[in-house]
Structures are given as C-alpha cells and as structure tokens.
C-alpha cells in the first residue's frame, strides 16, 4: 500500500487541527499556521482532543446548527445553477467518493502481494497483467483522491459562502454590529466571521465522511487481521494506539500552553510593526524612532524567549512521533511473524506464495493502523470543529438577542416635521450621568449649536437621537420622508468608503436609490450635481485626471475610457486599495463629508465637529453652502467661528446640566 496516497487523503482535514488555546488568542494568521504545523505532528500519534475541548451534546448541537445553515443555504452559488452543483449534491458525491476510495485503496494495497506472487513464480504473462492492474488501480486511487480534494474545496467555498452570508444578514444591519461591539459579550466578531467560519467550512464535511466510513473500515480490517494473526494482532494494534493516545494527551497540553504564549507574543510583535507603519509620519515628526525601535526590540526579545521554550518542549513530542511512526511499521511485520512461526503459512509452498502472503498480511494490519489514525485524527478535528461552531453559534445567539430587542422606540416621527427632544436623560455605558432632563426643539432654518467641555456628552446626545444609545428617559422626534429619517448625522470621525470619488460623495445612498432619484435626467444630472458640489466645497482639483493618475492602479485606469476628455469619468476611478484617507488631507476629508450632506440634501443635518480641521474661510464657505441649500443644522462645536451660523445654543456643563440661549448675531 502506498502510504503517500493515504497521507494526501488525510491532509485534506488534518491541517485544520488547532491547539485549544488558539481559540482564546487574538487574531494572528501567520502564528496560526505555525501552531498548526507544530501541532500537526500529533496526527500520526492519534491525538484525542485535550480536556479543554471535550465534545458534549451542546457542542454537537451547535455543530448541527451550523452545518444545517450551511447545507440549507439558498444563496446563489451555494445552490446549484447550470453545471454548478449544489452543496447537498456535493456532500453526497463526497461520501460516495470516500466509499469508492476505500475499495480502490484495498485493491491498490493488495497489488504488491500480487507482484510478489508473479515475480516469485517468474510468470511473465501474470506480471504484465498485474502491472496493468497496478497502473489502473493507481490511476483510480489518484483520481478519486483528486476528486475528493476537489469536492472538499467546493464544499468549503460553498459552505463558507452560505454561513458568512447568513451571518452578514444578521450582523451588518442597523444597531446589530453597533450593539454587539458596544456590549462586548462576544469578543473578536471579525475573527469569527472571517476565520472561524472558513476553518470550519474547510473540514467539517471531510470529518463527517471519515467518521461515518472509517469505523466500518476499522471493523473490517480488524476481522481480516484477526483471521491472519488470531486475537493477538488486533489486540496489539489496539494497545499500541491506546498507549499512543495516552502519551500524546500527556505531551500536547504542555506544548499547547507554550505555543499559546508564543502566539500572544507574536501578536504583540506584529502590532508594533502595524503601529510603526500606521504612524510613520507622526513618529518622523516627533523623532520618536529610537523609542519605537526600543519597544519593538523588547517585544522581539519576549517573542524569542517564548519561541525557545516551544523548541525545547517540542523535543519529546518529536521523539514520541518518530518512535511511534517507526514502531507502527515494525509492528505490522512483527504481527506477520505470528502466523509464520505458528505454522499457519506452512501450506504455502509455491514460488512467491509466502512472500505474497506476508505482503498481503502486513498491508491488512497496516491499514488497520491507518484506519485508527484517521479516526483518531478526525475525532480530534471534530473537537476543534465543535470549538469553532460554538464560537460561531455564540455570535449568532448574541446577534439574535440584539436583533430581538433592537428597538429604538424613543425615536419617533415628528408630525410637524421638526427635531424635538423631550425630557431626555442619558447615561454612558459605565452608567455615569451625562445628560439630565434635556428638552429642546429645532424649527426649520433655526440652526442650533451644541457646545460644552470635552467628554460632557455632546456626541452621546446625538447617539441617543439616532437611536444607537437607549436613554434612561425621554423621547426624540425627528422628521421623516418616505418612511426614512430625514436627518443626516455626520459623525466626528470622517468615514471614507471603498470606491470612487462618486462613492465618497453619494455614501450612504445605494445605487438603486441614486437611480430612482435621478431617474428623469439619468446619470448626467447626477454627474452635474456631484461636480458642482465638489466645486462648491473647494474640491474641484479632485476632478482633474492628473490628480488621480499618480494614485490609480494601471488596471483600474484601463477601465476608464475618455478620462482625458470627459471630466465626469474621473468620478468613477476606483483605487485598487482604499487610498482616499492617504491622498486627502484631514481638511479635504471634511470637505468631502460636507459635499455628502449637500448631495443627500436632508431636511436637517447634525454635524459633530465636522469643520474642526478647516480654516475659517473654508468653514464659512461650507456653512454658507449648507444654509443656502436650506438644510437646517445642528452643530456640535467648540469653535467660536461657527457661532454666527447658528440662531440658538445649548451649552452643557460637565454635570449633565445645560443652558439654552439665543445667539446674538
Ligand atoms: N463606549 C463607551 N464606553 C464607556 N464610556 C463611554 C463610551 N463612549 C463614550 N463614553 C464616555 O461618555 C462620556 C461622553 O462622551 P462623548 O463622546 O459624548 O463626549 P463629548 O462631549 O462628545 O466629548 P468631545 O467634546 O471630546 O468630543 C465620556 O466620558 C466618554 O468617556
């Protein structure tokens, strides 16, 4: 039997195995590969899951839940379309291919005994037949393994797609991800969505097909071994594995904890370099290179110590692994000695008959060992799968809870179409009072300025008005148009989006919404509108092709025809990476956000420090543009320069009290 084939087959799932500690550590993709490689040496030892990942009914329930979502997903691409088979069909094909593989592996394994027979008997005709059979079986086994790996790849992609879309539908929606991140009950949701789902998808169908098929295979080869060696053969193989499991269970937890700490240090070390990259300009201005280098070196030294510990603790594991690998091979031949020396093979006298029987017997006991290895490694992988599905289910449970109580009934539609706040009291998540009993209303064109010391709760007020934070009491009434809030909230931190200049200005309007808004004049009107707005906010230089040429990817550029002659095509250049933050100054970024307000044209706009990076002249230009367009403004600002654009002012103190006054302009 060609062991390399069997290794290829098992590699489809064995690389998915993880140290239990990995589930606790921060996201670190390079480190994860390392840990997998290190722990993978356990596969041949037949590692059982260690105590942290005992498989219980609840865990299996989660796995069942996750699998059901993957298999029943109706996402395009997951269900069949044309020649593209659906996930359920692929799972059935995978199972059948695994069964077929068992037969092919059996006949391929016996071929060497047939070779011994024909070679021993110098049977040329027989040799040609066996050679032909050998080539045929090898092609069949190789073909089946390729097919199995292909099926696994397809199932992985499809189940990942189904699970991720299911999660996206619950996660990326109003309040859901905001509340999830605010509550902090489920850590690292991003890692669960991008990594855990992928890892789970990669192996669970394979693990199931193994767990369904291999016990039958193990029973079959146990009986065959028994018939050749008597009870002693299967018993010694069983004992061999029990010892292997015990040894591995003793050794792996020792290494796992060392690897966990190494991974943690690895994460810190990487963070230092991410920090250096993200703050390159600031570090250079401060001249902080030496300080930053010292920190990075300190982090490297800590990582080095932990890496050394892992290397030291790996020694006994490698020793055990090597011993068990070689001993397993010797054991199969030792077992063949039993029938040989007890006279069971004495009737074999023909040329090649004895060596053929030895080859056949050793193959059968070797396959029994292999079946055990596969079952045990699948059992270990199952424990990890349960771990992943528990993490994914936790995320779903939390999202379900959030989505069930995702009410913001304190925010209501104002019948008068104005902004009104009644007796609003707000606490921070740490339950300190920020605002008590606040009431005000903002009539159209009566712009309101909100000011007060840092941290007094100005942004928290607008969080509550948007429905993100639940107030301890009070209600908010806002104007609505076509069933949607007619108030645009511009957050303090600028958010630029992936995509073109057009996407920056039109965010968060969807393409369908733009299309219906500009249905009469088509794209042209939208283009004229965006170009005029960009000119109005002082960003007309972004409309020059030369401005983009130095930043765009050549491939992207080739998608944009007429760039030299048609200024509006400049709106659609997509940067290959999200470079808008890099290429625009903070002031330009704020101008782009105001351009958004002008484009979306809401009845009210709430601006949180939205002009803090602008010079007074640019600030005036933007405020005048907004006022000219008839948008009523509620501004949060510390700047004296904006007073003149407002009629009224709310000034908070740091105890939750406030003072409402008219601004004398
Ligand atoms: N997620 C949070 N968890 C705990 N405390 C928070 C959270 N968000 C805000 N706070 C606290 O609530 C208080 C009010 O914050 P808020 O952002 O409303 O201040 P602000 O008045 O807008 O300040 P600034 O003028 O500096 O922008 C602060 O003390 C802040 O630390």
Automatic annotation (TrEMBL):
**What Pfam families has UniProt attached to this entry?**
ABC_membrane_2, ABC_tran
Give the stretches traversing the membrane.
90-115, 135-155, 202-223, 235-256, 323-344, 364-386
Whether Transmembrane helix counts among this entry's keywords is yes
Which parts of the sequence are annotated with region: Disordered? 1-31
Skewed-composition ranges (Basic and acidic residues): 19-31
Looking up PROSITE patterns in the UniProt record yields:
ABC_TM1F (PS50929), ABC_TRANSPORTER_1 (PS00211), ABC_TRANSPORTER_2 (PS50893)
- The residues the entry assigns to the signal sequence are none
In what residue span(s) does the ABC transporter domain sit?
419-663
- Where would I find the ABC transmembrane type-1 domain in this sequence? 90-380
Sorted alphabetically, which keywords does the UniProt record give?
ATP-binding, Membrane, Nucleotide-binding, Transmembrane, Transmembrane helix, Transport
Extract the SMART domains matched here.
Answer: AAA
Q: Which InterPro entries match?
A: AAA+_ATPase, ABC1_TM_dom, ABC1_TM_sf, ABC_transporter-like_ATP-bd, ABC_transporter-like_CS, ABC_transporter_sub-D, P-loop_NTPase
Q: Cite the record's Basic residues compositional bias ranges.
A: 1-10
Q: Which GO terms of the cellular component aspect does the record hold?
A: peroxisomal membrane
**Which branch of life, at top level?**
Eukaryota
Q: Name one GO molecular function term.
A: ATP hydrolysis activity
Q: Might you name a Gene Ontology BP term for this protein? A: peroxisome organization
Family, per the entry? Belongs to the ABC transporter superfamily. ABCD family. Peroxisomal fatty acyl CoA transporter (TC 3.A.1.203) subfamily.
Protein name from the UniProt record:
ABC transporter domain-containing protein
Source organism: Furculomyces boomerangus
């Amino acid at each position: 039997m060609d062991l390399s084939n069997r290794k290829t087959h098992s590699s489809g799932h064995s690389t998915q195995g993880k140290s239990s500690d990995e589930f606790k550590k921060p996201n670190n993709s390079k480190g994860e590969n390392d840990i997998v490689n290190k722990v993978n040496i356990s596969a041949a030892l037949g590692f059982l899951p260690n105590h942290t990942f005992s498989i219980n009914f609840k865990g299996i329930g989660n796995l069942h839940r996750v699998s059901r979502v993957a298999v029943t997903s109706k996402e395009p691409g997951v269900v069949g379309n044309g020649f593209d088979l659906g996930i359920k069909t692929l799972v059935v094909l995978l199972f059948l291919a695994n069964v077929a593989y068992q037969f092919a592996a059996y006949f391929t394994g016996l071929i060497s005994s047939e070779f011994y027979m024909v070679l021993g008997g110098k049977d040329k005709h027989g040799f040609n037949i066996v050679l032909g059979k050998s080539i045929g079986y090898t092609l069949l086994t190789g073909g089946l393994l390729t097919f199995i790996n292909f099926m696994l790849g397809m199932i992985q992609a499809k189940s990942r797609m189904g699970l991720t879309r299911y999660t996206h539908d619950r996660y990326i929606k109003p309040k859901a991800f905001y509340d999830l991140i605010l509550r902090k009950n489920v850590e690292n949701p991003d890692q669960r969505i991008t990594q855990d789902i992928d890892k789970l998808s990669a192996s669970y169908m394979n693990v199931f097909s193994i767990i369904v098929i291999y016990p039958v295979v193990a029973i079959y080869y146990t009986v065959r071994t028994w018939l050749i060696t008597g009870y002693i053969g299967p018993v010694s193989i069983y004992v061999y594995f029990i010892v292997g499991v015990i040894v591995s269970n003793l050794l792996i937890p020792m290494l796992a904890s060392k690897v966990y700490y190494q991974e943690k240090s690895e994460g810190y070390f990487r963070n230092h370099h991410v920090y250096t990259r993200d703050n390159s300009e600031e570090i250079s201005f401060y001249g902080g290179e030496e300080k930053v280098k010292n920190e990075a070196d300190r982090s490297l030294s800590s990582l080095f110590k932990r890496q050394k510990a892992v290397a030291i603790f790996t020694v006994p594991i490698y020793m055990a692994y090597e011993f068990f690998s070689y001993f397993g091979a010797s054991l199969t031949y030792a077992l063949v000695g039993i029938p040989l020396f007890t006279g069971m093979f004495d009737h074999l006298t023909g040329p090649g008959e004895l060596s053929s029987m030895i080859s056949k017997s050793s193959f059968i006991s070797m396959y029994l060992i292999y079946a055990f290895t596969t079952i045990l490694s699948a059992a270990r992988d199952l424990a990890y799968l349960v771990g992943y599905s528990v993490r994914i289910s936790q995320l779903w449970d939390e999202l379900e809870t959030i989505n069930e109580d995702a009410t913001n009934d304190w925010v209501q539609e104002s019948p008068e179409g104005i902004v009104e706040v009644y007796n609003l009291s707000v606490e921070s998540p740490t339950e300190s009072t920020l605002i008590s009993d606040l009431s005000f209303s903002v009539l159209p064109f009566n712009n309101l300025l909100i000011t007060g010391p840092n941290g007094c709760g100005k942004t928290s007020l607008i969080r509550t008005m948007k429905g993100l934070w639940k107030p301890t009491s009070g209600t908010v009434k806002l104007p609505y148009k076509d069933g949607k809030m007619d108030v645009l909230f511009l957050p303090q931190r600028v958010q630029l989006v992936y995509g073109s200049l057009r996407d920056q200005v039109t965010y968060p309007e969807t393409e369908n919404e733009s299309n219906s808004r500009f249905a009469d004049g088509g794209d042209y009107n939208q283009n004229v509108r965006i170009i005029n707005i960009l000119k109005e906010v002082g960003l007309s230089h972004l409309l020059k092709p030369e401005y983009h040429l130095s930043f765009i990817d050549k491939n992207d550029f080739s998608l944009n025809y007429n760039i030299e002659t048609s200024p509006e095509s400049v709106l659609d250049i997509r940067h290959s990476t999200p470079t808008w933050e890099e290429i625009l100054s903070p002031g330009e970024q704020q101008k782009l956000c105001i351009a958004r307000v002008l484009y979306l044209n809401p009845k009210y706009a709430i601006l949180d420090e939205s002009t803090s990076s602008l010079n007074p002249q640019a600030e005036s230009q933007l405020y005048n543009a907004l006022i000219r367009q008839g948008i009523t403004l509620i501004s949060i600002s510390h700047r004296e320069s904006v007073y003149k654009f407002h009629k009224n002012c709310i000034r908070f103190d740091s105890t939750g009290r406030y003072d409402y006054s008219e601004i004398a302009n």
